[in-house]
Amino acid sequence: MVTTRSVDGTGIAYERHGDGQPLICLHGGMAPRQYWQPVRPYFDEYGVVVPQRPGFGTCLEDPAAIGADEVLNREVRYVRTLADAVDGDPILFGHSYGALTAIEAATGTAVDAVLAYEPAVLPDGYRTEADLADRMATLVDDGERREAVKRYVEQVLHPDGIDDLDTWLAEWPVWPDCVDLAEEVVRMNRAVERYRLPAGLDVEAPVLVMTGTNGPDFLRESAREVHEALPHSRLVEFDGVSHSGPGEAPERVSEEVRSFLRT
């Protein structure tokens, strides 16, 4: 893990794999850095940069001091600082909340391209009724951290249900880490519920927006809305792939990404 600070004092912590053009991979709301391990082998010619997002494990900021209204801005500043710290104009590759962060960061810093898998944006009709953050916060306050994070898994990762969820979670290698992130996931969800997609996103770089047919309907809808709000974008839908697309189907997703970057 490389740790450094920008000229304004912002702390940065990240892993780098390879020496090519920087490909900054931003994981989603509940996944640790290890989420990108299945993807990395498909980008050997790039310098894959995997940051330690603020609030997720070892970090140079105190996440408890950050309110929900500041969560997204904090992450955007972090990504912009990281983009300025690496050599050359990077490519931003974000999943879910990381995809939203990548798009927002690209409005204020020079990047070569943005790759966004199901950005965590809620359509207006869905957002007005969204209360996941409140339900999770209540469970956390009651000492039910595992149940709180299960609500996120059920609503976002597996909205169509999964047989014997408790057994599935027990066998999921990152589950203990996810439980540890309960408070950060609450803050992140509250930030998502408050975010409003503008009519137009001021991103000059080309953007590949991706979604999967097995993901939540509201994220598939929001992927189309994000695509329409961007001046230079392509929308791709993967048949039979869920919200966990890059980790679930790394070969298919990486093939589409590499094709986009070539053209």
TrEMBL record:
Residues 249-263 have a biased composition (Basic and acidic residues). Residues 23-255 form the AB hydrolase-1 domain. The keyword Phosphoprotein does not apply. Residues 240-263 are annotated as: Disordered. Keywords: Hydrolase. One of its GO terms (molecular function) is hydrolase activity. This is Alpha/beta hydrolase. SUPFAM superfamilies: alpha/beta-Hydrolases.
